Amino acid sequence: MSDKRFTIGLFICHLDNDYAYDICKGVDYAAKELDVNLVIFPGMYIDAAYNDPANAKYDYQYNSVFYYAKPESIDALIISIGTIGTFLDDADTIAFLDRFKDIPILTLESEYPGYPSLIIDSTRGLKDVINHLIYEHHKKHIGFISGRQGNSDAEERLEVYKSTLEEAGLPVQEDLIVYGNFSEYCEDLVEALLDSHPEIDALCFANDQMALGGYNVLKRRGIEIGKDIAVTGFDDVPLAMALEPALTTVRANACELGYRSVYETISLIKTGKTTTSRLNSAMIIRESCGCSNVMNSFDSSKEDGITGKTKTGLT
Length: 315
Prior knowledge:
The protein is an alpha/beta fold. It has helices spanning about 20-35, 60, 80-85, 90-100, 125-135, 150-165, 185-195, 210-220, 240, 255-270; strands spanning about 5-15, 35-45, 75-80, 105-110, 115-120, 140-145, 175-180, 200-205, 230, 250, 275-280, 280-285.
């Protein structure tokens, strides 16, 4: 067996984002355990059509850092498509990945032909959350704030929303669906949705960051979250616990995703095998859905969110 110490690169963006930070934390833990070198390439969104108006136009300058990843110095890359590729369609994402085809690549959050991936299965957790709104809180007019069209994560979560409503015998109304960009800059969309559909009794956001924008809108309007309108998110980043009321959401463990990705990448380097693995998601009930006297869902014994060194949770 070779004594070479491997060097793994991580493409990630917006390190001030809780989700990206948790991925980095998990990757760092695993790199230390496996005694491998870790190089983080901190870029921004690629080809951001719209995001933070003040900063998006400068993102391309940060992204030049990605092109310093060379096969002479990097043994494999972990690429967080769910962060850097939020604004890319599948064709543009594959074109971006192909630029680094001389380096073994593991993609996170999204699956592409010819590339091994580690992704979070949105289905179980999100389905449970929507069913919780329907059967426990008797919500019948659930608005859905999706990510952008063409984004695979957004499309998967939207499909779960639609299929869950259909299974419950509720109509899928396309005009109750709006398309954001996975950032908090979705307030105009939420405003318009509430103006056109005053009957809405729940808002289901495709991630926690967009739920933050929704909270801002509802509070400006004097709408009591959890009482007048139920609100749910997805990801369970630290923001979810900090919101008032605390956000009912889906735990998609970004820290564990990063942690597992290093083990998968080392296996890829050694075996050359192309596989896809999935981490499960889970419903986390707090107060924003209308539940009261909810026990704190944060388990201090698992502060880093990593369940262990073995591959429990992978399906």
